[in-house]
Structures are given as C-alpha cells and as structure tokens.
Design brief:
alpha+beta; seven-stranded mixed beta sheet; 11 helices; FAD-depend_C; FAD-binding_protein; FAD-dependent protein C-terminal domain-containing protein
Length: 523
Amino acid sequence: MPFLLRNLTLSPGVEESALRPLAAARLGVRESEITALTLVRKGVDARKKGAIKLVYTVQVTLRDESRVRTGEDLTRVEAAAPPRFPKLASAGRIVIVGMGPAGLFAALRLAEYGLTARVLERGRDVDRRSTDVSRFWRLGDLCEESNVQFGEGGAGTFSDGKLTTRVKDPNCGWVLERLVQFGAPPEILYAAKPHIGTDRLRAVVRGIRERLLESGFHIGFESRLTGIGMTGGEVKSVVVNDAGEEPCDSLVLAPGHSARDTYAMLHGLGVALEQKPFAVGLRVEHPQALINEIQYGRNAHPSLPPAEYAQTYNNEATGRSAYSFCMCPGGVVVAAASEAGGVVVNGMSGYRRNGPYANSALVATVGPADFAGSSPLAGVEFQRELERRAFVAGGSGYRAPAQSLLDFIGRGGRGIRSSYRPGVTEYDLASLLPVPVAATLREGIEQFDRRMRGFVSAEATLTGVETRTSAPLRILRGADLQSLSHRGLYPTGEGAGYAGGIMSAALDGIRVADAIAARIAAS
C-alpha cells in the first residue's frame, strides 16, 4: 500500500529528481527501497523572503513497508473505489443549455452513463469566437452573441484558467483528469494553485467537443434558448431562437452569469428566482516585476513562477468587504462586454504567464439593499447602469475609463498605462461607482498596501468597471437539484448562482448529471 509523504522541501532551481533521495532520507530507507514516487502536490512557501522553498507532497511505494512508521507527515493511502457508472437508457430527451464548464462537464458525465443529449450554445465555436473577440479588442466591433461572455467554453475561456476551489468534492480529481485527457498541462494534477491559461484552455474545450460528438451528442451553436414548454408543471419542450420547438424532458440550464435575456425569459415564465449579493469594482494593473519583488523579495530565483496575491478587507461597521479576485500574473486586462453601450473589464493570462504586467479585480460587495426594487432582475439593472456609465466615461467607443491608483485614493498621482484594448481614457473612477463601493475600495487598497508594501505605487493603474464577478441572481432549486417551480429544469453552474469559477462550475454540472442519471435509473 502506498504512503503520502508531506513537507518535502527543495530550494528553487533544484531539480525534482532530488525528491527521491530526500524522501529516502526522511523515511530512513535506502533509495533503492522506493519502487515508485509520484508528485501529489507542489506549492511555494514564500513566508520568508530570504529562504523561499518549494514544498512537495509525494506518494511513495516501498519494497518493505515494515521499515517505516506512519505519523503526521507520513500516512497510508487508502485506496478509493473508482466511480461506477451503470449504463442507462432513457426514452426521454435531455437538453443542455450552455457550453461553459457546468454544461460541458454535465455532458461528459452523462456520457459515462451511456446517455446523450442535445447541447445548445448561443455563441459560436471557440475558433470563430476567438476571431470575433480579437476583432472587438482591435476595432471595438462587438458581436453580442460571440464575445468574452458567450460562446463555446464559457466566460472562463478568456481568463487565467484557474482551477482552485474551496469546495471539497471527491469529483475534483475526476475533473482534473478529464482536463488533462483533453490537453491541459499534467501539472494541474498536483499544483497547489493549478491553472491552464487561456491559450491551452481553448484547445481543451475543442477536445471536449470532439469527444461529445464521438459519444453521440448533438451540438448546436448560435442556438439561444428563448422559451420552455410546460405540461402539468413539467418541462416538455424548449424553444430555440424564437423558432423551432424541440422535445425535452430534462433541461440542464447552465447559462453563464451574463445571460441577461435568459434571466428575463425565465422571470417571464414564472421560474423561481431570487436576488443575490455579488461584487463590483475595478481592475488594478502593476508591473509583474513589482509583484514578484513584493512577494518574493529582491534577487529571487528566476525559476520561481510569476508571483500571485489574494487580499481581503472587511469593514465591520458597514458590513462591506473588498477583495482581490481573479488575479492574472503576467496577463492583460481585457474588454469583456456582451451588450452594446456597456464597458466591462476582466483579466486574462496565457499558460506561461509571461507578460510584463499583473492584474487583478479589486471589488466590493453589494447586495439587495443597493438595488432598485425587489425584482429578481434588479441586480442585472444595477450592473447594466454601471457598465453604461463606464461606456460614456471612456468616450462611447468601448474605450475604458482608467485612473492612477494613487489618484483614486487621493494621493495625487497622475498618468495611466493599461494593457486594455481598444484603449483607455483617463477619468475619475470614483464618480462612476456607488459611494459606499468607492469608499470600501479605498479602505481596502490602503489595507492591502500595509500587507503588501509597494502595492500602492505610481506604476499601478485602475481600469473600470468590473461587474461580472458572479451571477446577480439565483435560479432556485431543491435538494433534488430541480427548479422549485419547474420540474425537469436543472439550474447549474455560475450563471444559476451555484458556483464561482471553472472548477466549482464543473463540479456543479457533474452533480446535476448524476441527479438526472439517478432519476432515470429509478424510473
């Protein structure tokens, strides 16, 4: 039976082949006694800037297990039973709406049971979508159905491709293994903070589509859900592009957090929805070299990965929080609008994270008390109003308003530099935001600088507005994962209000697929 050996450390630049003799020394055995050693986890310990270490957990198999004793850093690996997928057959029709992580992994999971589905995506395939996005960034020519938010792969396709999650789910390994199977870098299986990068992620998405087609799934691009047919409280059909009606008994709804017209359609049909807190703010950009120095110290070893950060601030008096979000080392700030007349910013990195700048969202929490009215769509209108203000402030051509971070916090800095395309216009960003949001961000930035000396810098630029941090509402569902109001409707993923990133959305899609399979097996 193999063992997990934790807290092996190497200095940056030391080859990982040194782990085997290091493990042998820790175990008190000869190196030849180790018959197998594989990486389980790898992270960076930068708490001591002058003594940064790479920290590993490894799985080892020994010829003679009686030679070692388990303890805090050495435990036996209990063999987990592989997941079982009984082959099922169903006369009902499954439709999946949305080809983001939730929709794609719901489909992959259904395929394990031998089930197939019709998959609808309002946007275009990832290759045509990439062309549309590139055109928008160069020329400001927005395609409202094919952009950073809509299209094969979902919004995460144009991001850093982070796979971190706080969710403890046995399917995490299953997701990572599938991603590697379709082209993700193998190190995501053991990296403490795994990421794929937008460049690699596009190829992964393409590979998943090809596998689904091979498995008998039918995929329709430029196919927007515009209606749901009901009989006796049960889903019986879907309407696509306001035209064709297709039979449907189980509807997996994974719309993404920007499908505002879909939200409006659901509200009109009486689907149970509720307002939900989210966060809005700005995106900050620093030289990556500055972030490296802050996190690693001067003269850090060049083999260390581009440095990251995550910061939070809570104002107990107001109940509001500010935090960094979707930090992109070596990345760029991107135009992420999906509606004409609105400016939205986001961040993106390639797999190598080798760009000269780092960026991150700096956002503050908002909730129903900030929205106008009690409608479930009030959060959508709150977002939309901020985006329209940013559009006008930028010059009404998808240029983004931007400001020196020093100027934003009142220290008098001037001058802006941003990787955002199609360009930026200098503007007082606080005037765009609700007063409590701007105040919380300023407080948070000062707090971040106390923890990361140098964060407040003349080299830092803020760009606005960041509004699409998560869904502005929740599509209510019960313990069986079906809508509280429409049987057969399975809301899932980030857009439904049940996830917050690629990994958690994929896991939620899997849960929905398993629920559908269980329902079919019991029928």
